[in-house]
Amino acid sequence: MLFHLYSSVCFLIIVGFENKNVPFLIIFLCFVALCFLISKLLYSKAGGYDDVEKEINLEHANSGEFKYTDDSFRFKNNKSEIEIKYSEILKVSFRNGAYGYKQTSHGLEIISLNGLFYFDQESTNGFIKLIDQLNKHLDISDRAEGKIYYINGKTTMTTVFEK
Questions:
Q1: Would you call 70 helix, strand, or coil by DSSP?
Q2: What is the arithmetic mean of pLDDT over 10-39?
Q3: DSSP H or E segment with residue 82
Q4: CA 37 to chain centre
Q5: pLDDT digits (tens, 9 = 90+) for 50-62
């Protein structure tokens, strides 16, 4: 494509140098070509669809801090290992909070017979797989259909499962 652009510029130089607008057009086309070349050099390392798909698949496969069995999952909390059975989960809620300009925090709140547990997406290793496992073992409704609660105007709590 760059070759075609330069050949067009050369053609304009040879054919239409008598027109006063041709030098401006040549300068503009050279500027466009230079911008294209610079952007190609700067962003040539950006990954494509395959790289993004691999990263997403790794997130879904990452168990992180959790160990999963057929009827429960385990994680460490304050040096002790806690096991939560899927049958003992009473409520699952997603929390979205806005803190400052365009800064959001996403979390998952699970209330079970063992207590209340909150998992933050930024600090919990294996967060995506935990959501996948909850979707697999519980009848979690779509977030759009869940009950939404507003806390202090900026934080929303969406209940997606409740016994």
A1: coil
A2: 71
A3: strand 80-85
A4: 29
A5: 777 888 888 888 8
